[in-house]
Specification:
Layout (H helix, E strand, L loop, with lengths): L21 E5 L4 H12 L3 E6 L2 H15 L7 E5 H7 L3 E4 L6 H8 L7 E4 L4 E2 L2 E5 L7 H9 L4 E4 L6 H5 L9 E5 L2 H12 L5 E3 L6 H16 L21
Parallel strand pairs: 1-2, 1-4, 2-3, 4-5, 5-8, 9-10
Antiparallel strand pairs: 6-7, 8-9
Helix pairs in contact: 1-2, 4-5
GO cellular component, one term: plasma membrane
Keywords: Oxidoreductase
Organism: Bradyrhizobium sacchari
Length: about 250
């Protein structure tokens, strides 16, 4: 089955990235959002850190810029969610807790025209992060697409990398990134953006595949919590045949 036959829409080609782009990260005041903001800034991508509380976002952005300590000329600035979306040239990343997922998207829907929404949210089960509780649409990515409408470009990605790993700036990110979405061009563009973090990233097909990708997260959480596994903050890698993985 081709991507087009599987429901992936191929749009006319356009440039999604430039050297001085600004992205938005909503839920940016949480550990995952902060780690991503730092990583993207180091990669030369400026970040509009979004939160329901714009003052808190501004304060955390100031702290993050201090952590950069001259590593990059890119800047992190904090604002409320709508301000962050407006500041984003093309990409809006959503890293809010699942409980706030739909409400956040509904609040920013009118400001997303012409942009790509990258959904990082995993619908973990209440009181049990070692299991998922998928919405009726099948995944958070598909729920986002349904809520925003078929014309909105939605990509699911960055579900399986731990916040601890993202914030360990002196270490390389220890996993590959899987992305999926029904707009082929937008998904490829999101993959290119993510690769700027110094990781391998893969277009894994249409949004329905988010059901598998998002479900990997609780498996990793379970392993990372297990006393039988001698390490934590594990990720996944895609290895070619015959490659040792070293």
């Amino acid at each position: 089955m081709t991507l087009l036959a599987a429901g992936v829409t191929k749009r006319s080609k356009r440039s999604y990235m430039n050297s001085d782009t600004t992205i938005a990260i909503l839920g940016g005041t949480g550990p995952q959002g902060q780690g991503l903001a730092l990583r993207f800034a180091i990669a030369g991508v400026s970040v509009a850190l979004g939160s329901r509380d714009g003052d808190r976002a501004a304060a955390i952005a100031e702290e993050l810029n201090k952590k950069l300590n001259g590593r990059s000329e890119a800047h992190i600035h904090g604002c409320d969610n709508l301000g962050a979306v407006d500041a984003a040239e093309q990409f809006v990343l959503v890293a809010v807790p699942y409980a706030g997922h739909d409400a956040t998207l509904a609040a920013i829907k009118s400001r997303l025209s012409g942009k790509v929404l990258v959904d990082l949210v995993v619908p973990l089960a209440a009181a049990n992060p070692r299991a998922v509780a998928m919405p009726k649409e099948g995944s958070a990515t598909e729920a986002a697409q349904a809520l925003l409408g078929s014309e909105m470009k939605v990509v699911g990605a960055l579900h399986n990398v731990s916040a601890h790993t993202l914030n360990a700036l002196d270490e390389k990110i220890n996993c590959d990134i899987l992305a999926c979405g029904d707009d082929l061009e937008a998904t490829d563009a999101a993959v290119d953006l993510i690769k700027r973090l110094g990781v391998e990233a893969y277009n894994c097909g249409p949004a329905v595949n988010a059901r598998c990708i998002e479900a990997i997260t609780p498996i990793l959480i379970r392993l990372n919590m297990s006393k039988k596994v001698p390490f934590s903050h594990a990720g996944i890698r895609i290895w070619r045949p015959g490659h040792s993985g070293v």
